[in-house]
Amino acid sequence: MGILDNFEKGLERAVNGAFAKTFRSGLQPVEITSALRRELDTKAAVVARDRILAPNRFTVRMSHTDYARMSALGVTLIDELTALVQKHGTEQGYQFTGGIDITLQDDRSLSEGMVQIDSSSVKSTVAWTPILDINGTRYPLVKARTVIGRGSDADITVDDTGTSRRHVEILWDGSRAQVRDLGSTNGSQLNGSPVSQAILEPDSVVTIGRTRIVFRVLAQAADDSREVPRAAPPADPGTERHDMGGFWGPNA
Question: Which residues contact 27 (CB under 8 A, 6 or more apart)?
């Protein structure tokens, strides 16, 4: 149950607060994570002694009512599901033929509360997408330097009187991220400890005032994907390890 607990508790935390009121009945996000985990474990195929290939494209089918509620969360829910699939694959030693792609689908043949998963392996270029999750809002990192604070001149403005006008900055060089405190009055914390400047690992939490900033790197599928047989070995003989979250993907 340890792996199941780790896989599901992440999304349970994500749907607290503002999300919680949305899911008083019908399909729950935790049930989607459980279904995705089972799909990964069921469809994972041993293609070599040290290679277990798992599907990376998922269609999550649900009733019309459930679909309307889940879709209202937009990209935030998809990002959470993507991150948790990525984490579960890493923990199990699975490999993917490309980035993870998750789509929600309205299926009127299903009753409320039901969920079904269709999956396949799709060869694609992995798009490593760095994002900041701040109070439930997703901010892609599109610049080398992103300043966060309560001032209007910050790149991301937070409504928090406990933060300075230009409190902290996130640096991104295309492969690694750092956090740097900008001489703020109340200081900054990284995973609960004071920080002035440090490397940001995936799922790190930066706290400024009452604001939590979660840094994530998602291994998402680029647009040039094409389906490949699930149990077939990849055309490329080698794989490349990406250190962002321990995800493994092929040299696409």
Answer: 62, 63, 66, 69, 70, 112, 113, 114, 115
CB 240 within 8 A of CB 212: no
Instruction: Tell me the backbone φ, ψ of residue 120, rounded to 5 degrees.
Output: -160, 165
Secondary structure of the chain: what % helix, strand, coil (to 5)? Answer: 25, 40, 40
Indicate the pairing of strand 137-140 with strand 145-149: unpaired
Residues 227, 46: Cα–Cα separation, whole Å:
18
- Scanning the structure block, which residue is given the tokens 């966060």? 148
Tell me how far apart the alpha carbons of residues 95 and 49 are, in angstroms, rounded to a whole number.
13
Question: What's the angle, vertex CA 223, arms to CA 67 and CA 76, rounded to 5?
Answer: 40
The winner for highest mean pLDDT among 12-21, 84-93, 178-187 is: 178-187
Q: What is the CA radius of gyration of the chain?
A: 19
Instruction: Assess contact for 195 and 185: CB atoms under 8 A.
Output: no
User: Is residue 90 within 8 Å of 54, Cβ to Cβ?
Assistant: no
Task: List pLDDT tens digits, range 33-62.
Answer: 999 999 999 999 988 777 899 999 999 999
| Secondary structure, 3-state, 87-114 | HHHHHHCEECCCCEEEEEEECCCCCCCC
What is the rounded distance in angstroms from the CA atom of residue 183 to the CA atom of residue 23? 41
Burial zone of 181 (CB within 10 Å; 0-12 exposed, 13-18 middle, 19+ buried): buried
Residue pair 172/181 in contact by the 8 Å Cβ criterion: no
What beta strand segments (E) does the chain contain?
Answer: 45-48, 51-53, 57-62, 94-95, 101-106, 115-123, 126-134, 137-140, 145-149, 156-157, 168-172, 177-181, 188-190, 193-195, 197-200, 205-208, 211-221, 226-228, 239-241, 248-250
DSSP conformation class of 115: E
